[in-house]
Amino acid sequence: MKFKMRALCAGALGCLLFGSVAAHATNIEVLHWWTSGGEAKAAAQLKSIMESKGYTWKDFAVAGGGGENAMTVLKTRVVSGDPPAAAQIKGPSIQEWGAEGVLADLSPVANVEKWDRMLPEVVADVMKYDGHYVAVPVNVHRVNWMWINPAVFKAAGADVPRTWDEFPEAAKKIRAAGYIPLAHGGQPWQDFTVFESVVLGVGGADFYRQAMVKLDQKALHSDTMRHAFEVFGSLRADIDPDAPNRDWNQATAMVINGKAAMQLMGDWAKGEFTQAGKMPGKDYECVAAPGSQNAFTFNIDSLVMFQQNDANVTKGQHALASAVLSPAFQKVFNLAKGSIPVRTDMDLSDFDACARKSARDFQAAAKAGTLVPSIAHQMAVPAATAGAMQDVVTQFFNAPGASVDNVLDRLAQAARIQ
Ligand code: BGC
Predict the structure, then answer these.
(1) Whole-structure pTM value
(2) Which domains does the chain have, with CATH numbers?
(3) Tens digits of residue pLDDT in 360-373
(4) In this model, does residue 10 exceed pLDDT 50?
Protein backbone atom coordinates (compact mmCIF):
# COMPACT_ATOMS: atom_id res chain seq x y z
CA MET A 1 0.00 0.00 0.00
CA LYS A 2 1.46 3.39 -0.94
CA PHE A 3 0.99 6.63 0.95
CA LYS A 4 0.98 9.98 -0.81
CA MET A 5 2.55 12.61 1.38
CA ARG A 6 1.28 16.17 1.11
CA ALA A 7 2.43 19.23 2.97
CA LEU A 8 -0.12 21.67 4.32
CA CYS A 9 1.31 24.97 5.48
CA ALA A 10 -0.98 27.13 7.58
CA GLY A 11 0.45 30.27 9.16
CA ALA A 12 1.91 29.95 12.64
CA LEU A 13 1.06 26.26 12.86
CA GLY A 14 3.78 25.70 10.35
CA CYS A 15 3.64 22.75 8.04
CA LEU A 16 1.72 19.59 8.86
CA LEU A 17 2.34 16.43 6.99
CA PHE A 18 -0.54 14.10 6.42
CA GLY A 19 -1.03 11.03 4.34
CA SER A 20 -3.83 9.68 2.26
CA VAL A 21 -4.17 6.08 1.19
CA ALA A 22 -3.81 5.84 -2.54
CA ALA A 23 -5.82 3.17 -4.29
CA HIS A 24 -2.92 0.78 -4.62
CA ALA A 25 -4.05 -2.20 -2.58
CA THR A 26 -2.57 -5.42 -3.98
CA ASN A 27 -4.81 -7.25 -6.42
CA ILE A 28 -5.46 -10.89 -5.67
CA GLU A 29 -6.94 -12.52 -8.73
CA VAL A 30 -8.93 -15.69 -8.10
CA LEU A 31 -10.22 -17.98 -10.83
CA HIS A 32 -13.35 -19.97 -9.97
CA TRP A 33 -16.64 -21.13 -11.45
CA TRP A 34 -18.94 -20.15 -8.61
CA THR A 35 -21.53 -18.20 -10.56
CA SER A 36 -24.98 -19.54 -9.56
CA GLY A 37 -26.97 -17.72 -6.85
CA GLY A 38 -25.77 -19.84 -3.92
CA GLU A 39 -22.22 -20.15 -5.28
CA ALA A 40 -21.84 -16.41 -5.87
CA LYS A 41 -23.07 -15.67 -2.36
CA ALA A 42 -20.46 -18.08 -0.98
CA ALA A 43 -17.65 -16.58 -3.11
CA ALA A 44 -18.63 -13.10 -1.96
CA GLN A 45 -17.71 -14.13 1.60
CA LEU A 46 -14.14 -14.74 0.54
CA LYS A 47 -14.02 -11.47 -1.33
CA SER A 48 -15.16 -9.54 1.72
CA ILE A 49 -12.64 -11.25 4.02
CA MET A 50 -9.82 -10.40 1.62
CA GLU A 51 -11.00 -6.81 1.36
CA SER A 52 -11.10 -6.53 5.14
CA LYS A 53 -7.43 -7.56 5.11
CA GLY A 54 -6.63 -4.69 2.74
CA TYR A 55 -6.48 -6.57 -0.58
CA THR A 56 -8.43 -5.99 -3.75
CA TRP A 57 -10.30 -9.05 -4.96
CA LYS A 58 -10.00 -9.46 -8.69
CA ASP A 59 -12.80 -11.77 -9.64
CA PHE A 60 -11.94 -14.21 -12.43
CA ALA A 61 -15.22 -16.11 -12.66
CA VAL A 62 -15.68 -18.43 -15.62
CA ALA A 63 -19.24 -19.75 -15.77
CA GLY A 64 -19.85 -23.42 -16.42
CA GLY A 65 -20.81 -25.99 -13.80
CA GLY A 66 -18.20 -28.63 -13.08
CA GLY A 67 -15.43 -26.22 -14.12
CA GLU A 68 -14.48 -27.44 -17.61
CA ASN A 69 -14.62 -23.95 -19.11
CA ALA A 70 -12.63 -22.54 -16.21
CA MET A 71 -9.85 -25.11 -16.69
CA THR A 72 -9.56 -24.30 -20.41
CA VAL A 73 -9.20 -20.58 -19.69
CA LEU A 74 -6.72 -21.27 -16.88
CA LYS A 75 -4.42 -23.28 -19.16
CA THR A 76 -4.24 -20.40 -21.63
CA ARG A 77 -3.33 -17.96 -18.87
CA VAL A 78 -0.62 -20.17 -17.41
CA VAL A 79 0.88 -20.99 -20.80
CA SER A 80 1.10 -17.28 -21.58
CA GLY A 81 3.09 -16.78 -18.36
CA ASP A 82 0.34 -14.83 -16.60
CA PRO A 83 -1.29 -17.12 -14.05
CA PRO A 84 -3.83 -15.75 -11.57
CA ALA A 85 -2.78 -15.68 -7.90
CA ALA A 86 -5.19 -18.52 -7.10
CA ALA A 87 -7.44 -20.91 -8.96
CA GLN A 88 -10.09 -23.46 -8.10
CA ILE A 89 -8.31 -26.72 -8.95
CA LYS A 90 -9.12 -30.07 -7.43
CA GLY A 91 -8.05 -33.64 -6.81
CA PRO A 92 -5.40 -35.37 -8.94
CA SER A 93 -5.11 -32.27 -11.15
CA ILE A 94 -3.24 -30.62 -8.27
CA GLN A 95 -0.46 -33.17 -8.80
CA GLU A 96 -0.50 -32.54 -12.55
CA TRP A 97 -0.08 -28.78 -12.03
CA GLY A 98 2.56 -29.44 -9.36
CA ALA A 99 4.59 -31.42 -11.88
CA GLU A 100 4.58 -28.38 -14.20
CA GLY A 101 6.60 -26.52 -11.54
CA VAL A 102 4.29 -23.49 -11.49
CA LEU A 103 2.69 -23.79 -8.05
CA ALA A 104 3.57 -21.74 -4.98
CA ASP A 105 4.60 -23.42 -1.73
CA LEU A 106 2.15 -22.70 1.07
CA SER A 107 4.27 -24.37 3.78
CA PRO A 108 5.02 -21.06 5.54
CA VAL A 109 1.31 -20.70 6.39
CA ALA A 110 0.53 -24.39 6.73
CA ASN A 111 3.33 -24.99 9.24
CA VAL A 112 2.49 -22.02 11.43
CA GLU A 113 -1.22 -22.81 11.41
CA LYS A 114 -0.67 -26.57 11.78
CA TRP A 115 -2.86 -27.61 8.87
CA ASP A 116 -1.78 -31.23 9.32
CA ARG A 117 -3.62 -31.31 12.63
CA MET A 118 -6.65 -29.47 11.34
CA LEU A 119 -7.42 -31.55 8.25
CA PRO A 120 -8.35 -35.18 7.66
CA GLU A 121 -5.26 -36.97 6.32
CA VAL A 122 -7.02 -38.04 3.13
CA VAL A 123 -7.68 -34.35 2.39
CA ALA A 124 -4.21 -33.11 3.39
CA ASP A 125 -2.53 -35.62 1.06
CA VAL A 126 -4.42 -34.31 -1.96
CA MET A 127 -3.40 -30.71 -1.15
CA LYS A 128 0.33 -31.49 -1.11
CA TYR A 129 2.78 -31.82 -3.94
CA ASP A 130 6.11 -33.37 -3.13
CA GLY A 131 5.36 -33.11 0.58
CA HIS A 132 4.47 -29.38 0.52
CA TYR A 133 1.06 -27.77 0.65
CA VAL A 134 0.33 -26.13 -2.70
CA ALA A 135 -3.45 -25.89 -2.24
CA VAL A 136 -5.86 -24.98 0.50
CA PRO A 137 -9.09 -27.00 0.85
CA VAL A 138 -12.31 -25.04 1.08
CA ASN A 139 -15.06 -27.54 1.86
CA VAL A 140 -16.43 -31.05 1.50
CA HIS A 141 -19.27 -31.54 -0.97
CA ARG A 142 -21.21 -34.79 -1.13
CA VAL A 143 -22.20 -35.79 -4.65
CA ASN A 144 -24.51 -38.79 -4.11
CA TRP A 145 -27.55 -36.79 -3.04
CA MET A 146 -31.06 -36.72 -4.40
CA TRP A 147 -33.06 -33.50 -3.88
CA ILE A 148 -36.76 -34.04 -3.40
CA ASN A 149 -39.86 -31.89 -3.63
CA PRO A 150 -42.15 -33.60 -1.08
CA ALA A 151 -45.28 -31.75 -2.26
CA VAL A 152 -44.85 -33.24 -5.75
CA PHE A 153 -44.42 -36.74 -4.28
CA LYS A 154 -47.53 -36.25 -2.21
CA ALA A 155 -49.60 -34.97 -5.13
CA ALA A 156 -48.48 -37.97 -7.18
CA GLY A 157 -49.06 -40.47 -4.36
CA ALA A 158 -45.50 -41.72 -4.86
CA ASP A 159 -42.90 -42.92 -2.35
CA VAL A 160 -39.34 -41.60 -2.46
CA PRO A 161 -37.34 -44.41 -4.13
CA ARG A 162 -34.67 -45.93 -1.91
CA THR A 163 -33.26 -48.23 -4.58
CA TRP A 164 -32.93 -48.12 -8.35
CA ASP A 165 -35.46 -50.97 -8.50
CA GLU A 166 -38.04 -48.73 -6.83
CA PHE A 167 -37.27 -45.75 -9.04
CA PRO A 168 -39.40 -46.60 -12.14
CA GLU A 169 -42.59 -47.06 -10.09
CA ALA A 170 -42.17 -43.65 -8.43
CA ALA A 171 -41.30 -42.00 -11.77
CA LYS A 172 -44.39 -43.53 -13.41
CA LYS A 173 -46.73 -42.09 -10.76
CA ILE A 174 -45.06 -38.68 -10.93
CA ARG A 175 -45.37 -38.58 -14.71
CA ALA A 176 -49.01 -39.69 -14.56
CA ALA A 177 -49.73 -36.82 -12.15
CA GLY A 178 -48.33 -34.32 -14.68
CA TYR A 179 -44.89 -33.63 -13.19
CA ILE A 180 -41.37 -34.23 -14.49
CA PRO A 181 -39.79 -37.06 -12.47
CA LEU A 182 -36.15 -35.99 -12.81
CA ALA A 183 -34.90 -32.42 -13.24
CA HIS A 184 -31.77 -32.63 -15.37
CA GLY A 185 -29.51 -30.44 -17.42
CA GLY A 186 -28.15 -32.15 -20.52
CA GLN A 187 -24.50 -31.16 -20.18
CA PRO A 188 -21.74 -33.78 -20.21
CA TRP A 189 -20.67 -33.19 -16.60
CA GLN A 190 -24.26 -33.43 -15.36
CA ASP A 191 -24.78 -36.70 -17.26
CA PHE A 192 -21.56 -37.99 -15.68
CA THR A 193 -22.67 -36.83 -12.21
CA VAL A 194 -25.91 -38.82 -12.51
CA PHE A 195 -24.03 -41.80 -13.95
CA GLU A 196 -21.58 -42.04 -11.05
CA SER A 197 -24.46 -42.06 -8.57
CA VAL A 198 -26.14 -44.84 -10.55
CA VAL A 199 -22.91 -46.88 -10.56
CA LEU A 200 -22.57 -46.39 -6.80
CA GLY A 201 -26.21 -47.28 -6.12
CA VAL A 202 -26.25 -50.32 -8.39
CA GLY A 203 -22.83 -51.73 -7.52
CA GLY A 204 -21.99 -50.40 -4.05
CA ALA A 205 -18.85 -48.59 -2.89
CA ASP A 206 -16.39 -51.46 -3.49
CA PHE A 207 -17.58 -51.89 -7.05
CA TYR A 208 -17.50 -48.12 -7.61
CA ARG A 209 -13.89 -48.04 -6.37
CA GLN A 210 -12.84 -50.92 -8.63
CA ALA A 211 -14.49 -49.45 -11.72
CA MET A 212 -14.27 -45.68 -11.31
CA VAL A 213 -11.12 -45.19 -9.25
CA LYS A 214 -8.92 -48.21 -9.92
CA LEU A 215 -10.29 -48.43 -13.48
CA ASP A 216 -10.22 -52.22 -13.29
CA GLN A 217 -10.98 -53.63 -16.74
CA LYS A 218 -12.90 -56.60 -15.33
CA ALA A 219 -15.20 -54.34 -13.34
CA LEU A 220 -15.69 -52.06 -16.33
CA HIS A 221 -16.78 -55.06 -18.43
CA SER A 222 -18.87 -56.68 -15.69
CA ASP A 223 -22.59 -57.45 -15.56
CA THR A 224 -22.86 -54.93 -12.75
CA MET A 225 -21.61 -52.18 -15.05
CA ARG A 226 -23.99 -53.44 -17.75
CA HIS A 227 -26.87 -53.10 -15.31
CA ALA A 228 -25.70 -49.61 -14.29
CA PHE A 229 -25.86 -48.53 -17.95
CA GLU A 230 -29.33 -50.06 -18.32
CA VAL A 231 -30.60 -48.12 -15.31
CA PHE A 232 -28.85 -44.96 -16.48
CA GLY A 233 -30.34 -45.32 -19.99
CA SER A 234 -33.81 -45.79 -18.54
CA LEU A 235 -33.60 -42.31 -16.97
CA ARG A 236 -33.87 -40.75 -20.45
CA ALA A 237 -37.62 -41.34 -20.12
CA ASP A 238 -37.77 -39.46 -16.81
CA ILE A 239 -36.38 -36.12 -17.95
CA ASP A 240 -38.12 -33.44 -20.03
CA PRO A 241 -37.38 -32.59 -23.68
CA ASP A 242 -35.92 -29.19 -22.75
CA ALA A 243 -33.07 -30.72 -20.73
CA PRO A 244 -30.30 -30.30 -23.39
CA ASN A 245 -27.85 -27.62 -22.31
CA ARG A 246 -29.83 -26.59 -19.25
CA ASP A 247 -27.61 -25.36 -16.41
CA TRP A 248 -27.68 -27.38 -13.20
CA ASN A 249 -29.14 -24.54 -11.14
CA GLN A 250 -32.05 -24.21 -13.57
CA ALA A 251 -32.73 -27.89 -13.02
CA THR A 252 -32.61 -27.28 -9.26
CA ALA A 253 -35.11 -24.45 -9.74
CA MET A 254 -37.54 -26.96 -11.30
CA VAL A 255 -37.50 -28.94 -8.04
CA ILE A 256 -37.77 -25.75 -5.99
CA ASN A 257 -40.76 -24.55 -8.04
CA GLY A 258 -42.54 -27.89 -7.99
CA LYS A 259 -42.24 -28.64 -11.71
CA ALA A 260 -40.07 -31.66 -11.09
CA ALA A 261 -39.89 -34.18 -8.25
CA MET A 262 -36.16 -35.00 -7.96
CA GLN A 263 -32.66 -33.98 -8.96
CA LEU A 264 -29.51 -36.08 -8.65
CA MET A 265 -26.83 -33.51 -7.86
CA GLY A 266 -24.14 -32.66 -5.33
CA ASP A 267 -24.99 -30.42 -2.41
CA TRP A 268 -24.08 -27.19 -4.16
CA ALA A 269 -27.76 -27.64 -5.18
CA LYS A 270 -28.64 -27.03 -1.55
CA GLY A 271 -27.09 -23.56 -1.90
CA GLU A 272 -29.89 -22.80 -4.38
CA PHE A 273 -32.63 -24.00 -2.00
CA THR A 274 -31.08 -21.90 0.78
CA GLN A 275 -30.82 -18.88 -1.49
CA ALA A 276 -34.53 -19.30 -2.35
CA GLY A 277 -35.38 -19.27 1.37
CA LYS A 278 -36.41 -22.96 1.43
CA MET A 279 -36.11 -25.16 4.50
CA PRO A 280 -35.02 -28.80 4.50
CA GLY A 281 -37.58 -31.15 6.02
CA LYS A 282 -40.36 -28.73 5.06
CA ASP A 283 -39.97 -27.41 1.52
CA TYR A 284 -37.49 -30.01 0.32
CA GLU A 285 -35.72 -33.18 1.41
CA CYS A 286 -32.16 -34.33 0.95
CA VAL A 287 -31.83 -38.10 0.66
CA ALA A 288 -28.99 -40.29 -0.53
CA ALA A 289 -29.18 -41.21 -4.22
CA PRO A 290 -31.00 -44.57 -4.57
CA GLY A 291 -29.02 -47.52 -3.22
CA SER A 292 -26.17 -45.38 -1.88
CA GLN A 293 -27.37 -44.71 1.68
CA ASN A 294 -24.24 -46.06 3.34
CA ALA A 295 -21.74 -44.52 0.93
CA PHE A 296 -20.38 -41.04 0.34
CA THR A 297 -18.89 -39.68 -2.88
CA PHE A 298 -16.74 -36.74 -1.87
CA ASN A 299 -15.83 -33.65 -3.84
CA ILE A 300 -13.46 -31.23 -2.17
CA ASP A 301 -13.06 -27.73 -3.55
CA SER A 302 -9.62 -26.25 -3.16
CA LEU A 303 -7.71 -23.17 -4.20
CA VAL A 304 -4.28 -23.69 -5.70
CA MET A 305 -1.78 -20.83 -5.66
CA PHE A 306 0.54 -20.03 -8.57
CA GLN A 307 4.10 -18.69 -8.16
CA GLN A 308 4.24 -14.90 -8.51
CA ASN A 309 7.03 -12.37 -9.02
CA ASP A 310 5.50 -9.74 -6.77
CA ALA A 311 6.21 -10.29 -3.05
CA ASN A 312 3.03 -8.43 -2.15
CA VAL A 313 0.97 -10.91 -4.13
CA THR A 314 2.76 -13.78 -2.39
CA LYS A 315 1.82 -12.21 0.93
CA GLY A 316 -1.75 -11.90 -0.31
CA GLN A 317 -1.77 -15.59 -1.25
CA HIS A 318 -0.77 -16.47 2.28
CA ALA A 319 -3.50 -14.21 3.64
CA LEU A 320 -6.01 -15.90 1.32
CA ALA A 321 -4.93 -19.40 2.36
CA SER A 322 -5.16 -18.46 6.00
CA ALA A 323 -8.62 -16.89 5.53
CA VAL A 324 -9.98 -19.98 3.78
CA LEU A 325 -9.22 -22.20 6.76
CA SER A 326 -10.36 -19.72 9.40
CA PRO A 327 -13.38 -20.95 11.38
CA ALA A 328 -15.33 -17.78 10.53
CA PHE A 329 -14.93 -18.31 6.80
CA GLN A 330 -15.52 -22.05 6.98
CA LYS A 331 -18.87 -21.30 8.55
CA VAL A 332 -20.21 -18.48 6.35
CA PHE A 333 -18.94 -19.95 3.11
CA ASN A 334 -20.28 -23.44 3.67
CA LEU A 335 -23.64 -22.21 4.96
CA ALA A 336 -24.14 -20.48 1.60
CA LYS A 337 -22.45 -23.13 -0.56
CA GLY A 338 -24.35 -26.19 0.70
CA SER A 339 -21.16 -28.05 1.62
CA ILE A 340 -19.68 -28.82 5.05
CA PRO A 341 -16.51 -27.38 6.57
CA VAL A 342 -13.30 -29.22 5.78
CA ARG A 343 -11.94 -28.54 9.26
CA THR A 344 -12.73 -31.41 11.58
CA ASP A 345 -13.03 -29.21 14.69
CA MET A 346 -16.04 -27.10 13.68
CA ASP A 347 -19.29 -26.79 15.60
CA LEU A 348 -22.15 -27.54 13.19
CA SER A 349 -25.03 -26.39 15.39
CA ASP A 350 -25.83 -23.48 13.05
CA PHE A 351 -25.89 -25.78 10.02
CA ASP A 352 -29.08 -27.37 8.70
CA ALA A 353 -30.15 -31.00 8.91
CA CYS A 354 -28.71 -31.88 5.47
CA ALA A 355 -25.26 -30.55 6.40
CA ARG A 356 -25.32 -32.38 9.72
CA LYS A 357 -26.37 -35.58 7.95
CA SER A 358 -23.55 -35.07 5.47
CA ALA A 359 -20.99 -34.72 8.28
CA ARG A 360 -22.31 -37.84 10.06
CA ASP A 361 -22.39 -39.86 6.86
CA PHE A 362 -18.86 -38.73 5.97
CA GLN A 363 -17.53 -40.09 9.27
CA ALA A 364 -19.55 -43.29 9.03
CA ALA A 365 -18.46 -43.90 5.43
CA ALA A 366 -14.83 -43.25 6.35
CA LYS A 367 -15.09 -45.91 9.07
CA ALA A 368 -16.94 -48.39 6.88
CA GLY A 369 -14.60 -47.98 3.92
CA THR A 370 -17.40 -46.58 1.73
CA LEU A 371 -15.99 -43.07 1.32
CA VAL A 372 -15.16 -42.75 -2.38
CA PRO A 373 -13.91 -39.91 -4.60
CA SER A 374 -16.22 -38.44 -7.24
CA ILE A 375 -15.02 -39.17 -10.76
CA ALA A 376 -17.35 -36.59 -12.33
CA HIS A 377 -15.89 -33.87 -10.10
CA GLN A 378 -12.21 -34.54 -10.74
CA MET A 379 -11.45 -36.34 -7.50
CA ALA A 380 -10.77 -39.87 -8.68
CA VAL A 381 -8.59 -40.15 -11.78
CA PRO A 382 -6.44 -37.90 -14.01
CA ALA A 383 -8.40 -35.24 -15.89
CA ALA A 384 -7.70 -36.79 -19.31
CA THR A 385 -9.07 -40.17 -18.22
CA ALA A 386 -12.16 -38.67 -16.59
CA GLY A 387 -12.77 -36.54 -19.69
CA ALA A 388 -12.57 -39.53 -22.04
CA MET A 389 -14.92 -41.57 -19.86
CA GLN A 390 -17.32 -38.65 -19.56
CA ASP A 391 -17.49 -38.40 -23.37
CA VAL A 392 -18.52 -42.05 -23.62
CA VAL A 393 -21.15 -41.70 -20.91
CA THR A 394 -22.69 -38.56 -22.36
CA GLN A 395 -22.76 -39.93 -25.90
CA PHE A 396 -24.55 -43.02 -24.64
CA PHE A 397 -27.11 -40.98 -22.71
CA ASN A 398 -27.83 -38.80 -25.72
CA ALA A 399 -28.31 -41.69 -28.14
CA PRO A 400 -31.50 -43.50 -27.16
CA GLY A 401 -31.23 -47.11 -28.25
CA ALA A 402 -27.39 -47.10 -28.06
CA SER A 403 -26.00 -50.58 -27.45
CA VAL A 404 -24.94 -51.41 -23.91
CA ASP A 405 -22.37 -54.00 -25.13
CA ASN A 406 -20.74 -51.36 -27.20
CA VAL A 407 -20.65 -48.75 -24.46
CA LEU A 408 -18.98 -51.16 -22.02
CA ASP A 409 -16.12 -51.64 -24.48
CA ARG A 410 -15.84 -47.93 -25.14
CA LEU A 411 -15.82 -47.00 -21.46
CA ALA A 412 -13.13 -49.59 -20.74
CA GLN A 413 -11.04 -48.21 -23.61
CA ALA A 414 -11.48 -44.64 -22.40
CA ALA A 415 -10.33 -45.72 -18.93
CA ARG A 416 -6.93 -46.62 -20.46
CA ILE A 417 -6.32 -43.04 -21.60
CA GLN A 418 -3.92 -41.17 -19.29
C1 BGC B 1 -17.61 -27.84 -7.72
C2 BGC B 1 -18.62 -27.06 -6.93
C3 BGC B 1 -19.56 -26.34 -7.87
C4 BGC B 1 -20.16 -27.34 -8.85
C5 BGC B 1 -21.13 -26.73 -9.85
C6 BGC B 1 -18.30 -28.75 -8.72
O7 BGC B 1 -17.36 -29.42 -9.50
O8 BGC B 1 -16.85 -28.65 -6.86
O9 BGC B 1 -17.98 -26.13 -6.09
O10 BGC B 1 -20.55 -25.70 -7.12
O11 BGC B 1 -19.14 -27.98 -9.58
O12 BGC B 1 -20.52 -25.75 -10.58
Answers:
(1) 0.93
(2) 25-140+299-353 (3.40.190.10), 142-298+360-414 (3.40.190.10)
(3) 999 999 999 999 99
(4) no
